[in-house]
Amino acid sequence: MIPWEEIDRAKVPGHEGEIILLKRGSEFSIRTAGTELMNSRVHGSEDALAELTCRRIKQKSDIRILIGGLGMGYTLAATLEQSRPNTRIIVSELIPAVVRWNRKHLGHLARMPLDDSRVSVRKEDVANIIREKKSFWDAILLDVDNGPEGLTRKANDRLYSKSGLRTSFFALCPGGILAVWSSKEDQAFARRLKQCGFTTETITVRARKSGKGSRHTIWLAKKP
Ligand SMILES: C[S@@+](CC[C@H](N)C(=O)[O-])C[C@H]1O[C@@H](n2cnc3c(N)ncnc32)[C@H](O)[C@@H]1O
């Protein structure tokens, strides 16, 4: 068995923890607080987050999509695959090292999505970007943590609170979709989405493309 080799580590802004990039042969792993946040071999549900959302976006000439959390770039790559040439995608990544890792070590895993001219990267908290605009985004895709209970960063909880969900609601165009990835079901969160005015679908997806692996949850919350 090839041992894991540490490639780099970085501090998580606003948190005591660190995030670590490891490599074993052609496999990569991003870990924090002793937990694997991402593994390059398992991205079925990260792809599904994009595919399920893009299928539901109303087709029009200028689509604007915000993705919170670059990770290994799989959600971004799947969004690009489903998008037309004039779609604009902003990907927000809190940890500058993750952007650097994508450019230097990880880009080939997801067909170099940062090189696509439809994509702009902002190295900052997605919560700040959501707050900037009203009725602007056709979709906001959030995969910044383990789900509504933050693991990387306690401050992410505000994205999933009622006030955070209302901010996303106002930032979306009518018919726009807030899509949220989670490692598990959370009925209280589904209720909060409804209380904030969204019509919500809760979808269970498997971690692996083959239909195997853990069950993850994706909420697709539509602004009527
Ligand atoms: C699980 S990974 C995302 C995986 C991604 N969907 C993919 O396909 O590879 C979570 C990412 O969100 C980033 N992140 C965490 N909190 C964030 C925030 N508040 N704003 C923007 N990015 C954040 C983390 O640094 C990490 O890169």
In brief, what are we looking at here?
The protein has helices at 44-56, 74-82, 96-106, 126-132, 157-160, 162-171, 187-195, and strands spanning 5-11, 18-24, 27-32, 35-39, 64-68, 88-92, 119-122, 137-142, 172-182, 199-206, 215-222. With 224 residues, it is of the alpha/beta class.
Q: Can you describe this structure?
A:
This protein is α/β, with parallel strands linked by helices. It has one domain: Rossmann fold (3-Layer(aba) Sandwich), CATH 3.40.50. The chain has 7 helices and 11 strands. A 7-stranded mixed beta sheet has the order 7-6-5-8-9-11-10, with helices on both faces. Strand 1 and strand 2 form a beta hairpin. Helix 1 packs parallel to helix 2 and helix 4 packs across helix 6. The termini are far apart. The mean pLDDT is 94. S-adenosylmethionine binds next to strand 4, helix 2 and helix 4.
Question: How would you summarize the topology of this molecule?
Answer:
Blueprint: E1 5-11, E2 18-24, E3 27-32, E4 35-39, H1 44-56, E5 64-68, H2 74-82, E6 88-92, H3 96-106, E7 119-122, H4 126-132, E8 137-142, H5 157-160, H6 162-171, E9 172-182, H7 187-195, E10 199-206, E11 215-222
Parallel strand pairs: 5-6, 5-8, 6-7, 8-9
Antiparallel strand pairs: 1-2, 2-3, 3-4, 9-11, 10-11
